[in-house]
């Protein structure tokens, strides 16, 4: 049983259940779905051993999460004695402070900790993570500190190049003004459907013009009162607080802000009633038109994942796509099937192969197409991705139309199987790009498995890592490569491309192409083979079983020996499936044969 510490049993505080033995929230949308300490649902879960998290910000509670010894010693010396908890890697110092934002304590590449605030949660004491308990080491009253006092205390552990101006971080102090467009927006009311966007614009302009947090709240409330109908006050204040607490991510001026407004805030804070769509109105609207870079293979402004096993030609296939798009004209593989309809600016992040390998591969492909080098000036390569400064990488990627990542797992700050890691990367990098209308192509490996061990599961389940990525994309392509062979001194093989997911309903069929690599002429030729019908591995094995039984009935042991690469469980499933399909008969246990005409007559009679 997990107990909530006495000092934290306050009506104003909010808690969330965490997974047993972990720090991951048990329920989704925990920022909205949280509980008072006395809530029966929370009490029931804690009684079953679930961990508990404390939502920061409520009641002006902030928590300093100290990760390093020097930061810890500094806080012990400078902070007044307050409620303190020992964590597996440091300490949590609990404070009451009207801080306007969370603070990351980084200097250069060194991370000291952070100050947790609105929109964040911490593991509460008495929880156990990976066998280590979060325990109270200083059971004192939680003390109040002024924001200015707290900022002075931690100033040597935050970047020096920035200064505090009002309630925000900025490079230069700006005049505190309300512009005429802001005045007009404040005095005007807007209908439902435009209120969230208007709130965002007012908060952003106010923040960039130096207004204090209190003044921004006042301005937003005034404008909201003129809306028809106004938003609920609690909902509005949560929206404004969220924006201010994440100001550096969302409120800095950018050309792409209209997209960020629409995607990051419209759906997040809209009431359920306002989300409803009248079907009659929807049907009167024309169907949305999908634009392409390569029709119908690469749609504009969408997210695509390309997967396959190691050496299945994923990277080279994607490289061929990038070269075709960078060329901006002609066709890809086949002029009647895939047409290039634009010339985007392409950025390839390659953390898998490196410039030397890419240089060699591009040379082979360029020689084949007889491309001029100057035709590819809009195709750029980067071998480095700054995980510690995601915002800088995002700003860089925003300058391109198509962004390619090879391979996905190398971009993550953690395990690819952890949904919280993949979700964070999606929200920090993919989501803003998609909101800005960029096309994102991600290369991902399949899970480790032998082809002969595959079942009839969809290809979408074969992508490695958390299933969240496959759920987030619009189009998923799975590549399957045939065995290599030499023909006329050329390395030849086929690559089949299957639709694992097609959320947009693109008029795209499974297809295949032949690859012929000529090391003598230093070129790689691609030849389109047309539509490719996928035959599930199970059906392939049933055909093999039927061929084997053509020589007469066989015992189970003989079938095991024929399918030596398969486990006994897989062979049993294969036999059961073959019998259900009517491809195989078994008159007595352990003996199998092919159906005869007599079997058909019996079935007709029955």
Structure description:
The protein is of the alpha+beta class. The protein has four domains: 156 residues, Prim-pol fold, CATH 3.30.2250; 96 residues, no CATH class; 240 residues, Rossmann fold (3-Layer(aba) Sandwich); 69 residues, Orthogonal Bundle (Arc Repressor Mutant, subunit A). The chain contains 20 helices and 29 strands. Helix 5 crosses helix 9. It is globular, with a radius of gyration of 30 Å. The C terminus is likely disordered.
Which key phrases capture this entry?
disordered C terminus; 10-stranded mixed beta sheet; Rossmann fold; 4 domains; 7-stranded mixed beta sheet; Prim-pol fold; 606 residues
CATH fold name of the largest domain: Rossmann fold
Total E-strand runs? 29
Structural class: alpha+beta
| End-to-end separation | 61 Å
Task: Please give the structural blueprint.
Elements: E1 14-18, H1 40-47, E2 51-55, E3 61-66, H2 69-78, E4 84-86, E5 91-96, E6 103-107, E7 110-116, E8 121-123, E9 128-129, E10 132-133, E11 135-138, E12 143-144, H3 147-154, E13 163-165, E14 168-170, H4 180-187, H5 195-208, H6 213-225, H7 233-245, H8 247-250, H9 257-269, H10 272-275, H11 279-284, E15 292-295, E16 298-299, E17 303-308, H12 314-327, E18 339-340, E19 346-350, H13 355-369, E20 379-382, H14 390-397, E21 402-406, H15 419-435, E22 439-445, H16 467-472, E23 475-481, E24 485-487, E25 490-502, E26 511-518, E27 523-531, H17 537-549, E28 554-555, H18 556-562, H19 568-580, E29 591-592, H20 597-605
Parallel strand pairs: 5-12, 17-22, 17-23, 19-20, 19-21, 21-22
Antiparallel strand pairs: 1-2, 2-8, 3-5, 3-7, 4-5, 4-11, 6-7, 9-10, 13-14, 15-16, 15-18, 23-25, 24-25, 25-26, 26-27, 28-29
Helix pairs in contact: 5-6, 5-7, 5-9, 6-7, 12-13, 14-15
């Amino acid at each position: 049983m997990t107990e909530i510490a006495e000092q934290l049993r306050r009506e104003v505080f909010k808690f969330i259940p965490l997974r047993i033995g972990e720090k991951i929230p048990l329920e989704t949308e925990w920022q909205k779905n949280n509980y008072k300490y006395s809530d029966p649902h929370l009490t029931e879960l804690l009684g079953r051993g679930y961990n508990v998290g404390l939502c920061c910000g409520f009641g002006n509670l902030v928590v300093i999460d100290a990760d390093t010894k020097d930061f810890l010693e500094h806080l012990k010396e400078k902070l007044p004695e307050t409620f303190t908890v020992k964590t597996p890697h440091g300490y949590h110092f609990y404070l009451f402070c009207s801080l306007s934002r969370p603070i990351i304590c980084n200097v250069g590449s060194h991370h000291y900790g952070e100050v947790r605030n609105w929109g964040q949660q911490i593991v509460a004491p008495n929880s156990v993570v990976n066998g280590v308990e979060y325990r109270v080491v200083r059971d004192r009253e939680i003390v109040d500190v002024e924001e200015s006092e707290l900022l002075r205390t931690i100033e040597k552990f935050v970047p020096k190049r920035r200064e505090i101006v009002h309630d925000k971080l900025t490079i230069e102090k700006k005049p505190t003004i309300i512009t005429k467009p802001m005045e007009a927006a404040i005095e005007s009311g807007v209908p439902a459907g435009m209120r969230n966007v208007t709130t965002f614009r007012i908060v952003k302009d106010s923040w960039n013009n130096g207004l204090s947090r209190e003044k921004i709240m006042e301005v937003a409330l005034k404008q909201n009162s003129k809306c028809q109908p106004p938003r609920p006050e609690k909902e509005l204040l949560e929206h404004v607080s969220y924006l201010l607490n994440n100001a550096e991510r969302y409120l800095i001026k950018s050309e792409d802000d209209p997209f960020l407004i629409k995607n990051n805030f419209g759906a997040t804070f809209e009431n359920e009633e306002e989300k409803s769509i009248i079907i009659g109105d929807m049907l009167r609207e024309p169907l949305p038109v999908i634009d392409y870079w390569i029709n119908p293979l690469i749609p504009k402004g969408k997210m695509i994942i390309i997967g396959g096993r190691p050496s299945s030609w994923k990277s080279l296939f994607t490289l061929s796509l990038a070269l075709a798009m960078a060329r901006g004209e002609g066709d890809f593989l086949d002029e009647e099937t895939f047409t290039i309809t634009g010339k985007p600016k392409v950025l390839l992040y390659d953390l898998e192969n490196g410039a030397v390998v890419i240089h060699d591969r591009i040379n082979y492909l360029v020689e084949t197409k007889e491309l001029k080098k100057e035709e590819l000036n809009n195709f750029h390569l980067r071998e480095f991705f700054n995980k510690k400064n995601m915002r800088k990488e995002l700003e860089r990627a925003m300058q391109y139309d198509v962004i390619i990542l090879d391979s996905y797992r190398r971009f993550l700050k953690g395990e690819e199987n952890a949904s919280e890691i993949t979700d964070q990367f999606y929200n920090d990098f993919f989501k803003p790009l998609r909101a800005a209308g960029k096309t994102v192509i991600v290369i991902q490996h399949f899970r480790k498995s032998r082809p002969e061990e595959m079942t009839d599961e969809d290809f979408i389940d074969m992508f490695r890592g958390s299933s969240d990525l496959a759920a987030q994309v619009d189009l998923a392509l799975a590549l399957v490569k045939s065995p290599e062979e030499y023909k006329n001194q050329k390395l030849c093989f086929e690559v089949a491309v299957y639709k694992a997911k097609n959320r947009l309903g693109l008029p795209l069929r499974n297809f295949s192409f032949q690859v012929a690599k000529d090391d003598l002429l230093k070129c790689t030729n691609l030849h389109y083979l047309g539509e490719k019908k996928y035959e599930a591995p199970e059906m392939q094995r049933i055909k093999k079983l039927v061929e084997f039984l053509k020589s007469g009935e066989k015992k189970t042991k003989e079938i095991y020996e024929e399918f030596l690469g398969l486990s006994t469980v897989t062979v049993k499933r294969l036999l059961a499936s073959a019998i259900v399909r009517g491809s195989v008969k078994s008159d007595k246990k352990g003996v199998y044969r092919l159906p005869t005409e007599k079997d058909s007559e019996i079935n007709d009679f029955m």
